[in-house]
DNA sequence: CGCTCGTTTGAGAGGTCTCAATTTGGGTGG
DNA sequence: CCACCCAAATTGAGACCTCTCAAACGAGCG
C-alpha cells in the first residue's frame, strides 16, 4: 500500500472519502501516494494531461494561469480541497498551473483510479460532484466580483470574508500581499493603495495584521453580493 | 407523463441521457416538464433555491449576475446545455439569474429527481459530472481571459473560436452586440471600438456579418491561450 | 415615412497599470 | 547583538485602457 496504514485513518475522515465503501477506499489508498513538497514547488503545469487527482492535506496551493510569462492567481487552496478535478474527470489538459505556497502534503490519486471509483461507488461520486460544484461556484463568484466590483471593493469583500471565517475582527494575512493582490485581480501597488483607501471605511492594517474596526461601515462600502459574506 | 411520449426520443438522444438506464429515464421524464418560453422571459433569479435543473433543448439562454441594477452576462447557453447544475447538486441558492434570449424550449427536471437519479444510475452520474466539469472549465477560461487579455484580444479570441465552430471564415453574430459585449466583459462602446481596431488585424465586419480575412494575422494578435482556439 | 432602439462616434473622466524611487521588515553573518 | 542585505511593500508620477455621458447615425417596424 502506497499510503501507509498510519496515515489512512486521517484521510478516511475527509469529506471526500468519509462515505466511501471500505473496499473502494482501501483500493484507492493502495494506488495512491501521500507526498510532501517544499515551498514553491511546481506541482503541475498548464497544458499537461492529468495523471493524478491532487488533494491538499496540509499546506497551501497556488493555482495560476500563465501568459507570456505573466501569472495570474486563479485560486488559492487550503486543506481539504482537491484540485484539477475537472481535468481528471474529463481527461483533458490542465487549464492552470499549480505550485505550493508553503511546505505541503498532497495526496495523489491516479486519474484512472478516481474515475473507476466514481463509477463503482455512488457515495464517492456524490462527494466528487459536491466538491466540483463547490469549485464551480467559487470561480463564478470570483468572475462576478472581477466584473462588477472595483479593486477596493473586492479587497473589502475579501477582508469581510476572512474576518468571518476567522470568527474575529482581527486576523493575519495567510500569504504574501503580492499573491493576494494577484488573487484579487490587481497589482501589488493597487492592493497597497486599496488598503490605504479602506482606512476610511473601517479597516486598519499593521504589517500582516488586519483589523476590521467598523464592520458595518466596511460592509456598506463593500456591498457584498449574494454568496459573499452574510 | 409530463413529458409527452412524442418528445421523449429526442431527449433520450441527448448526451446527458443517452447512457442512462431505461427505467431511470422513464421515471425522470414522468416527473419532468418540457416547456416553451417567449423571448426575454425570466427563468430564474439570483438567490432563489433550485427547484429544477434546466436543460436548453431549443433557443438560447442568458446567464447573468446582477448588482445595483447592473447586469453582467456570465455565460450564454445553446442546446444542449444544462444550467444551474451546481446549485442543484449542492441544493444551494443560485448565483446567477437566467432569461431567454429568444423563444426557447426548456426541459425542467425537479432537483430531487436529478439527485436521486445521480445516486442510482452511474451512467447518468458520469454524464452529470462531465457536464459540470465542462462548465467549470468554461468559467475558468473566461476568468483567465478577463484577467490576462485586453478587451480587443478577448474579442479577437471570440471571433477565432466562432469562426472555428462555424467551420468558415465568415459567420453571423448569434446575438445582439450589446449582449456579446457584456459577455466579453466590456461595454457596447468598447466592443464597437474593438471591432474597428481589429480591422487592422484581419477582420472585416458588415452589420451582423463578421469575416476573418486574415486568420494568421488575427491569431497573431489574439495570441490564443491553451484551450482557446487551436 | 418617421419612430424607436441599437450602434457608432466623439470627448472627457476615472480607475488601474507601469515604471521608478524610497521605505520597511525579515533574515543572515560578522 | 547588531549591521547589513535583499525582497517586499509603499509611494509617486504618468500613461493607457476602459468607462461614462452625449450626440449622431442607421436599420427595422408600424
Main features:
DNA-binding; Jelly Rolls; 230 residues; Arc Repressor Mutant, subunit A; 2 domains; four-stranded antiparallel β-sheet; alpha+beta; homodimer
Description:
2 copies of one chain form a homodimer. The first copy, chain A, is of the alpha+beta class. The first copy, chain A, has 2 domains: 138 residues, Jelly Rolls, CATH 2.60.120; 73 residues, Arc Repressor Mutant, subunit A. In chain A, 45% of the residues lie in helices and 24% in strands. Chain A has a 4-stranded antiparallel β-sheet with strand order 1-8-3-6. In chain A, strands 2-7-4-5 form a 4-stranded antiparallel β-sheet. Chain A has a 3-stranded antiparallel β-sheet with strand order 9-11-10, with helices on one face. The first copy, chain A, is elongated. The mean pLDDT of chain A is 93. Chain A binds a DNA duplex (30 and 30 nucleotides) through helix 9.
SSE layout:
Two copies of one chain form a homodimer.
Chain A: H1 8-12, H2 15-18, H3 22-31, E1 33-37, E2 42-44, E3 52-58, E4 61-67, E5 70-77, E6 81-83, H4 85-90, E7 97-100, E8 104-110, H5 111-120, H6 122-148, H7 151-166, E9 170-172, H8 177-183, H9 188-198, E10 203-206, E11 209-212, H10 215-222
Antiparallel strand pairs in A: 1-8, 2-7, 3-6, 3-8, 4-5, 4-7, 9-11, 10-11
Helix pairs in contact in A: 5-6, 7-9, 7-10
Chain A binds a DNA duplex (30 and 30 nucleotides) through helix 9.
Amino acid at each position: 500500500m502506497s499510503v501507509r496504514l498510519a496515515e489512512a485513518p486521517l484521510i478516511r475522515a475527509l469529506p471526500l472519502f468519509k462515505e466511501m465503501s471500505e473496499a473502494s477506499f482501501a483500493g484507492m489508498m493502495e494506488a495512491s501516494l501521500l507526498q510532501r513538497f517544499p515551498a514553491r514547488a511546481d506541482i503541475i503545469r498548464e497544458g499537461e494531461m492529468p495523471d493524478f487527482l491532487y488533494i491538499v492535506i496540509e499546506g497551501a496551493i497556488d493555482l495560476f494561469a500563465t501568459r507570456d510569462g505573466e501569472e495570474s492567481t486563479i485560486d488559492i487552496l487550503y486543506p481539504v480541497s482537491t484540485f484539477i478535478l475537472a481535468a481528471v474527470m474529463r481527461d483533458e489538459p490542465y487549464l492552470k498551473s499549480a505550485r505550493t505556497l508553503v511546505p505541503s502534503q498532497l495526496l495523489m490519486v491516479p486519474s484512472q483510479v478516481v474515475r473507476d471509483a466514481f463509477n463503482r461507488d455512488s457515495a464517492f461520486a456524490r462527494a466528487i460532484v459536491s466538491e466540483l460544484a463547490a469549485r464551480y461556484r467559487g470561480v463564478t463568484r470570483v468572475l462576478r466580483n472581477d466584473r462588477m466590483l472595483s479593486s477596493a471593493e473586492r479587497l473589502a469583500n475579501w477582508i469581510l470574508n476572512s474576518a468571518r471565517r476567522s470568527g474575529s475582527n482581527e486576523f493575519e494575512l495567510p500569504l504574501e500581499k503580492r499573491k493576494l493582490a494577484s488573487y484579487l485581480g490587481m497589482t501589488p501597488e493597487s492592493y497597497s493603495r486599496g488598503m490605504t483607501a479602506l482606512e476610511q471605511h473601517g479597516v486598519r492594517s499593521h504589517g500582516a495584521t488586519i483589523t476590521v474596526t467598523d464592520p458595518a461601515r466596511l460592509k456598506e462600502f463593500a456591498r457584498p453580493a449574494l454568496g459573499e459574506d452574510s
